[in-house]
Design a protein that fits this description.
Strand order of the largest sheet: 17-16-15-14-13-12-11-10-9-21-20-18
InterPro entries: DUF1005
Number of helices: 5
Shape: globular
Organism: Solanum verrucosum
Strand content: 35-45%
Pfam families: DUF1005 (PF06219)
Order of helices and strands: EEEEHEEEEEEEHHEEEEEEEEHEEH
Helix content: 10-25%
Protein name: Formin-like protein 18
Oligomer: single chain
Length: 427
Amino acid sequence: MDPCPFLRITIADLAVMVPANRSLTSSVLLDCNIKLKGFPTQVSTINAFSKQDLVLENKIHASFNLNKTDIEKTNARGETSCLKIEICAPKSMGIGCGYYTGGRILGSVFVELDLKGLESKGSRGVVIKNGWVLVGVAKVHLNVKVEPDPRFVFQFDGEPECSPQVFQVNGNVKQPVFTCKFSFKNSGDWNSISRSSLSEGSTSKSCFNCWTADNETRRKERKGWLVTIHDLSGSPIAAASMVTPFVPSQGSNKVSRSNPGAWLILRPDQGTWKPWGRLQAWLEISGKLGYRFEIIPDGANDAITLVNSTISTKNGGKFSIDISNVAIPMASAHSSFDYSSVSGSWSDFGSSGSWGQILYRGFVMSSTVKGDGKCSKPEVVVGAQHVSCSEDAAAFVALAAAMDLSMDACQSFCQTLRKELRQSDQV
């Protein structure tokens, strides 16, 4: 498998230094709008310091990811892209340094980006700007870097519950690499899933007689869903197993945050299955789909949360794991992207965070998720640095399928699921 070329633009180490004759009584946070043509504006906060208190954070405030199409369009126009960084302050915040303008923009920094040929420069990357820029009476520090960030792109040829093929996409070339098989399993215990039973491609019909709950109970729980990812030889190389049923909270028809449903993402290991990660999902009071994904690294005592966020049930959006992107994308009137799907949860890992820093960094993956009632054919993008074999890629594909199916599992229990997701007595 050959990855697609991507470029990653990172904006880091932002800080404002006020003139020496202007003193700050305390540390002040300013808003920062980071803009690149064709992309949603990203918002971050930066510190303003007097010279004697200056401390630069080792922090990425925003990142932009350009795929092959974005790169080709920019190169075809024969123009350089321009990054714009606006420094402003909230109206409610007075900083007492003589240039605060009551919520308006304090100043802007423009950085020209020449992207030609950068996608082929290996892993070195190019630092476009690193240092201080004079803005009005203050100085702004920034570090702007562009580096190649190749990624694998996979496309489901249908909805995960319809057992579609999964294609790898590279430009105009599409080739089948996996098959996705949906079925029902007998038990919530993932240890009961044997490699042999998965390799036979078990169907929901083989499990119909194993359910003993009455019809009303069955209508009030969604359980036993299983997705297996097979390579082209038919061997199962990843799975997503629903291990905690999706059930409505007491007195409600919705899955609550206090009692979420859960999937285990599994990988084969010496003839059995080994848990690689856990995905939980629920419905927020706001009606959005809440989710949390944790990895289960070898030798670690606890699971490590990689993302904890929400996504619109109406419009869908992107399930994204990006360890370094801590900026908050700002809603655009011309975009249907669900910006709440971006999470900065990496800073909350605590003592186990060092494990995650070893295993994952930078862009990890993203997958599209459609809203309620919309046909979903997830597109999965995985950072090439996190894929050393087909099993690695298949685990992310299984995770994407579980995330997509969680949108169905968290539907109100007043709604009827599509027939592919119901057992025989419910069809």
